[in-house]
Fold this sequence. Notes:
single chain, alpha/beta, 5-stranded mixed beta sheet, 7 helices, 5 strands
Amino acid sequence: FSNPKITSLASRLVEPNHSDRSKHEEDADYDDDDALFAELEEEIENDNSSAMREQGLETLRREMARMREMKQSQYGTYNEVTDEKEVVRVTAHEPRCVVHFYHPNFKRCEIMDKQLAKIAPKYFNTRFFRVFVENIPWLVEKLSIKVLPCVICFVKGVTKDRIIGFEELGNNDAFTTAALELRLSVCGVYSFHSGYEIPGFQSGP
């Protein structure tokens, strides 16, 4: 869409969740989404092109519903899954997942946590979460996880890549978020700097 106000509203509408939001803040987000949706809908309806109006409103409604569903499925956040069966279900059925297998006694797992928490909100089409290895003994054995931290990327239920320790990150505790972000993108678990966009709209800067 060429209308700069429509583009600006659309980019605000698809801004992902933050991992530290409370339930109250999430409810407020839905109210904000509704207000933004109403404003964006009005702008599209006022567009000079009738074809653009019809296409824009249909696309907006469809993607708004999809975005709500993804938010409810914890996309755009970095959280923890504690049940082993749930970990198996999510990695098998969600199209793209980045999973951090961690132990709280490992300092480098804490460092990895902080970096993934920064990356997760930027890639709304990929599910990010962590699992405590002692909660998932069967998976640890099945995936041959022996060194922590271990980050495994799943695409369409298949293990595509894994980062073991910090060797590929310069073996340095002070590696940058951008370095991890770029490394994770190699297997196609997300497109580097792609983020989440509504088709037909350009995301804001």
